[in-house]
Amino acid sequence: MECKRSLIGLNAIFKRGVRDMRKFGIYIIMIVIGLCSGSALAGQDQVDQFVMANAAYTRGDYSQALTLYDEILAGGEVSGALLYNIGNTYFKIGDLGRAVLYYERALRYIPRDTDLQANYRYALSQRSQGLHLESGSVGERVSDVFIQMVTFEELCWIFAGLLFFLAFFHLWGLYRSWRGFLRAGSIGILIVLIFVVVLGIRLRLRHDLLGAVVLRDVPARFEPREDATVHFSVVEGERVDLMKKEKKWVKIKRFDDKIGWVQSHVVEKI
Amino acid sequence: MVFFGGSAAGSFAFAQEIDFQAEVNATTVALGSYLRLTLKVNGVTGLKAQELPELDGFDWDYIGPSSRVSIVNGQQFSSQSFSYQLYPQKTGTFEIPPIHRQIQGKDYATQALTITVVEQKDATQEASSGQSQRASLKDRLFLIVQAGKDEVYRYEKIPVTIRLYVGDVSVKDVKMPKIQQTGFLVDDFQQNPRQFQQVMNGLRYNVVEFQTWVYPVRTGTLTLGPVTAHCGIVFQDAGKRQRSGFFDDSFFDSFFTGYKTRPVELQSNRLNFNVRPLPTQGQPKEFSGAVGKFSFNMSVQPQEVSVGDPVTVRMTVSGEGSLKTFDLKGLEASPDFKVYDPQVKQDNGVKVLEQVLIPQHSGQVQVPEVHFSFFDTEQQRYRTISWGPVDITVNPVAQGRGFAVVGLPQDGSASARRPEELGRDINFIKDRLGRLYPVGYRTDRSPVFVSMVSLIMIAWLTGIGGYLFHRRLRTDERFARRLKAPGYAKFGLRQARKLRDAGAAAEFYDVMFQTLQKYFSHKLHLPPGAVSLQILNEHLTQRSGAEQVMKNLAGIWAQCEAARYAAARYDQTDMVQAYDGVQEIIDWFERHF
What we know:
The complex is a heterodimer. By secondary structure, chain A is an alpha+beta fold. Chain A has three domains: about 45-130, Serine Threonine Protein Phosphatase 5, Tetratricopeptide repeat; about 145-210; about 215-270, Roll (SH3 type barrels). Helices cover about 60% and strands about 15% of the residues of chain A. In chain A, strands 7-6-5-2-8 form a five-stranded antiparallel beta sheet. Chain A has a two-stranded antiparallel ribbon with strand order 3-4. In chain A, α2 runs antiparallel to α3 (about 60-75), α3 packs antiparallel against α4 and α5 packs antiparallel against α6. Chain A is flat and about 70 Å long. The termini of chain A are far apart. Chain B folds into five domains: about 15-130, Sandwich (Immunoglobulin-like), CATH 2.60.40.740; about 135-270, Immunoglobulin-like; about 290-395, Sandwich (Immunoglobulin-like); about 445-475; about 480-590, Up-down Bundle (Four Helix Bundle (Hemerythrin (Met), subunit A)). Chain B contains nine helices and 34 strands. The interface between A and B is large, with 70 and 52 residues. β1 of chain A pairs antiparallel with β34 (about 435-440) of chain B, so a sheet runs across the interface.
């Protein structure tokens, strides 16, 4: 009988332990959520600089605006709105290639911003060959969907969230003895979602790491030489993949998978 | 556990008020085996386990608690269970008396349970399985049909409930039941059958409840049923997968299916009804077979039209009773109206008649009065609801009015309007800087993200490990007893030390002996009475250094027996030596076993 009492006592201690663990878990989650954001709130200096640059833009002093925007970038921090405004400024001074480049960069941070999407499309439509948004491969088209919908940071946290839910539902199913099809169904759906998100992360990474924008209309050649045969031409603001760099030349791949060499100063990484 | 296929999915319903129940996993058990008794408290949590009263014919052991909290429609339901193992001591039929418990100052008692203890037929089989004898499949899976009443009128609506009781068997692919229905009209079953748990004769059943209504169409004595239902019983295919080692766990069952399903057909009881004819006295001439309680409505739209424009008459009947057993009659043609054939629809418990009338001349015309009669089974008399007449103002056709195309402006302004010319430019700059990120920042490389993902993975693996450990504790009795052994030893030694310090030699040696017996019983998975020096010696023969331990043990064992049975006198020094000796022996066992 004494032993039975001791077992009951052990159970009470165990329950108290579980309660303490729960409290501890909540603290940990609060701390992690606090640390989750990799971004920082805008400091007063940057805000002042940004307001001054916007004022210069508004009165039509685009070179002054650009200088002030660049100073904020030189501080080592960047935001979607800042890149969008720089893209606008380049558009206004007639540098369509850099305008598209900065709009592409801004898409990394604020992909769902309708102003940005409109300006990006309008800038592309002003090129010598007009608007061309069709991507060559299915992968690139899927990539475009991810790029226009979510940021890389959001994808990462969605992945972490899905992983958490997968673990949670799996353990919940184990401990609560869920029916087989319910457990398999929920876990299956989560695994499919994780697969889709991981695919999105891959595509997004590929786009971010390889993507570049052509700054002016130039011919792409078969070899990295001035006198090499022209293979195709790329236009100002066109997005290409950077494949290789050799001295003053870079190997690029166009949307239709054509590969050629252009001088390195006419393309800039996104 | 019940699995559903097709449309037979549903939700569980739980009792909300406090109640206290006892249930067992079997009502017949073999001597030498055990059965599980669970005391369940619904509506309260945070209770502590209670000790059972003396049970005639059984020894018992407390296993542990479990609790469950669920939220349904924003309301919280909770329950707490305490499990005990009952070990039969002799054969016969025994009663577990009502067990009382004070909950929130009020006394609650469980129902009494009757348990039959039988001789074990095959000792070898019993030793290997350790399972209680089970009741037959009919006791674990059966179908019951019930009706709200058995004295009814012809066409009267009768609620019928079909309950599928599922005991400790796994069932899947439960199909909708089929009713043998000669002489009855039967409604479709309600979607999403209700699921709940019910304790019958001390056994817990998962119950799936199907609800429908039937309407007798003949008079006299009619029989409904039997109801048949098909489902599949899931059983493990022992020959399909030989589990071993790491994969020896049900955790991997979802990945390596080793189950088979055997289809079964269940048959319910039959129900007899005495169906009376409807009274002929006072039956209205409009009566067409509606029995129950109905409401009747009529609308006429529009009530002002031009000659030749359509007027729609809509009659609606809804209420308690079959909509299939009567007809709705439309209006008949008259000099005032041309009448089209009525359209009758029946959906969601409403019968609707729609009929188009075309006024033939201008002036004030009347849609005539309509009647709907039904037999009210509550008041046991016929009732008639009337609507109308409804006045309609019919205007003559306006002079010069012709066909007009709907949607086009009449003044022809659309064609005169020119498309607006719009300029295009980029949208204006942003006036807020927004959130700043370090240049080159990548979330997937940030310490916070990496830590978070790692934390999730560690928690996941820990959870799986905990589940496997907990499961083994429940299923592997040897393992569970081995784990408990040091705790018993520690507890016993603590008691012994108190007695030693108090100089109570007889009690000291008694506790020491019981501690050793309980420790070895759990450590070596032996029945408590089977622990003896000879048995222990058999277990120790293969171990190095065991001779000295056995020697010490034999000495202490002899001291204990002498103190207990021969009233030998031992002083404080002897007790200290015996206490230290037992500690060393237990330490040695913990290191080597």
